[in-house]
Amino acid sequence: MKNFSGRVLFLDRSDINTDEIIPAKYLTEVSKEALKPHILEDLKLPSFSGPADCAGKSVIITRANFGCGSSREHAPWVLEVNGITAVIAESYARIFRQNMFNCGLLAIELKKEDIEGVFALKADDAVMDIDFSARRITVTSSHGRKEITFFLSPFDASLVEAGGWVEFADKRY
Amino acid sequence: MGKTITEKIFDAHCTDEPFTGTYVLKLDAVFCHEITTPIAINDLVRRGKDRVFDRNRIKAVIDHVTPAKDSKTAEQGKIMRDWARRHKIKDFFDVGSNGVCHALFPEKGFVRPGYTIIMGDSHTCTHGAFGAFAAGVGTTDLEVGILKGVCAFRKPQTIRVNLTGKPGKGVYAKDLILEVINKLTVKGATDCVIEFHGPVVAAMTMDSRMTLCNMAIEAGGTSGICMPDLVTVKYLWPFIKKQYASTGAAVQAFKKWHSDPDAEYVRVLDINVSKSAPRVTVGYKPDESKEVSAVKGTRVDQVYLGSCTNGRLEDLAIAAKMLKGKKIAPTVRGIVSPATPAVFAAALKRGYIDTFMKAGMCVTNPTCGACLGMSNGVLASGEVCASTTNRNFFGRMGKGGMVHLMSPATAAATAITGVITDPRKYL
């Protein structure tokens, strides 16, 4: 199982789409590593200055419907090769969410008020600790500290534990 | 209580329920293209599992960038080609026979009512037009599909959309689906299948139904779906005539895939299309659309007619009828990409290609190309395209470029004037 804790990247907008996460012109790559410099390249947000902001981050916190649009698994991959192993959002597009778990990555859903609570702690020094077995996240920053529990379906949790869908399916089918 | 078509398809294909609410479905077809499949192939090779579950149920095409434009796209094509040969996949479509997957595969008869289909492409929902459960998936789901012939889903809920009334002049399936997405929002159908019903759908051709289902994903939908009927049967008849005594018998047989009258829906959306108008998107999300009158006069640099949404014969016919004997505006670059070789050939025979060329448009080979800014019509920063495609995300057709989604009729009218134009005065 992967490590899901570390520094936090705050992306304060809903409906961030797959083309913003990784533009289609990079889909000609046949290795995941080659995607690395292009993370969130087309995302325009006042508080986000581009791929450099992703350095050293392990968790993304965002709003609703993250990862909408294309089915490209290049979106979770570009996060993964940049060391981002977990996303926390109010909701996801179905395919993106499934792709995350299929890769053994975490796509955690929290209620709107809990998402607000995490954004209230927004600061450069924000760190998130994700305790998978306790289903609990702890956010700490210079603005304070917050603990929130989360829910994972048994299937999603099994994919994370197995390391992904290929590993899960290969044992079972 | 009755069941929806999707519930019936799930019941007939569920091979495992590893956890409550998780359904592992047996797949009738796994579709593959060169953008999302090569990494799955490489991973299978790396794992020492370079196998396919059933070479006759795997259909593959090179369509996104074809013929290859550079070394990287050539490499993607080569990985697909070598893999198809290695596994004797007979339904593999390469340069000369290839076209946009969601137009090509139905045309080849690969989709049937009641089928389960996955593809590493979000617009796989198009095939729901035939009464199939067809879902876009990522590369890992595709990889397991190729290897094991299964895919896991949460059972989707269903949104029922009833289209009643009579569409006015200049109102097509594209305008109606833009209206549906506008009402549902880009996340309104997440984890849901959108079922299309009503006399308007019943009167639609398969080309129009595919346009309708194609954009279900733009509302977040797992798939779009229509009930199979005589229109479906007539389209499929060359492929199924040995299995059924008559078209009537096939229609009767496919009724087992109809949703029951007392099936349960999470939401019902009624739209009287008599009041609908041609629609155009205005922002960077597909749910941001307005009636054409609200944006008419907006300058465009390029008009694109093609894609899995609107690159079929019916779409080209509408545009050709409007452009016949006319020239496009000198400020506009007009690009037509017939979606498949068969569409291209028919358009040639009927004189549509001649009309487009005389109007001053460029006709490309069948490819996804410009829709996602990969080739054949990429925009420069600040440029605007009137497009019959399905996504208007910022930079989708080229970094810094803007796309207005619209029907082929509105696109043709816009090509003539150089600004977004209501098609009704040209019809």
Automatic annotation (TrEMBL), chain A:
<keyword id="KW-0456">Lyase</keyword>
<dbReference type="GO" id="GO:0016829">
    <property type="term" value="F:lyase activity"/>
</dbReference>
<dbReference type="InterPro" id="IPR033940">
    <property type="entry name" value="IPMI_Swivel"/>
</dbReference>
<dbReference type="InterPro" id="IPR015928">
    <property type="entry name" value="Aconitase/3IPM_dehydase_swvl"/>
</dbReference>
<feature type="domain" description="Aconitase A/isopropylmalate dehydratase small subunit swivel">
    <location>
        <begin position="57"/>
        <end position="112"/>
    </location>
</feature>
<dbReference type="Pfam" id="PF00694">
    <property type="entry name" value="Aconitase_C"/>
</dbReference>
<dbReference type="InterPro" id="IPR050075">
    <property type="entry name" value="LeuD"/>
</dbReference>
<protein>
    <submittedName>
        <fullName>3-isopropylmalate dehydratase</fullName>
    </submittedName>
</protein>
<dbReference type="InterPro" id="IPR000573">
    <property type="entry name" value="AconitaseA/IPMdHydase_ssu_swvl"/>
</dbReference>
From TrEMBL, chain B:
<dbReference type="InterPro" id="IPR001030">
    <property type="entry name" value="Acoase/IPM_deHydtase_lsu_aba"/>
</dbReference>
<keyword id="KW-0408">Iron</keyword>
<dbReference type="InterPro" id="IPR036008">
    <property type="entry name" value="Aconitase_4Fe-4S_dom"/>
</dbReference>
<keyword id="KW-0479">Metal-binding</keyword>
<dbReference type="GO" id="GO:0009098">
    <property type="term" value="P:L-leucine biosynthetic process"/>
</dbReference>
<dbReference type="Pfam" id="PF00330">
    <property type="entry name" value="Aconitase"/>
</dbReference>
<dbReference type="InterPro" id="IPR011826">
    <property type="entry name" value="HAcnase/IPMdehydase_lsu_prok"/>
</dbReference>
<dbReference type="GO" id="GO:0003861">
    <property type="term" value="F:3-isopropylmalate dehydratase activity"/>
</dbReference>
<dbReference type="InterPro" id="IPR006251">
    <property type="entry name" value="Homoacnase/IPMdehydase_lsu"/>
</dbReference>
<protein>
    <submittedName>
        <fullName>3-isopropylmalate dehydratase</fullName>
    </submittedName>
</protein>
<dbReference type="InterPro" id="IPR050067">
    <property type="entry name" value="IPM_dehydratase_rel_enz"/>
</dbReference>
<keyword id="KW-0456">Lyase</keyword>
<dbReference type="InterPro" id="IPR018136">
    <property type="entry name" value="Aconitase_4Fe-4S_BS"/>
</dbReference>
<keyword id="KW-0004">4Fe-4S</keyword>
<dbReference type="GO" id="GO:0046872">
    <property type="term" value="F:metal ion binding"/>
</dbReference>
<dbReference type="InterPro" id="IPR015931">
    <property type="entry name" value="Acnase/IPM_dHydase_lsu_aba_1/3"/>
</dbReference>
<dbReference type="InterPro" id="IPR033941">
    <property type="entry name" value="IPMI_cat"/>
</dbReference>
<dbReference type="GO" id="GO:0051539">
    <property type="term" value="F:4 iron, 4 sulfur cluster binding"/>
</dbReference>
<keyword id="KW-0411">Iron-sulfur</keyword>
<feature type="domain" description="Aconitase/3-isopropylmalate dehydratase large subunit alpha/beta/alpha">
    <location>
        <begin position="7"/>
        <end position="418"/>
    </location>
</feature>
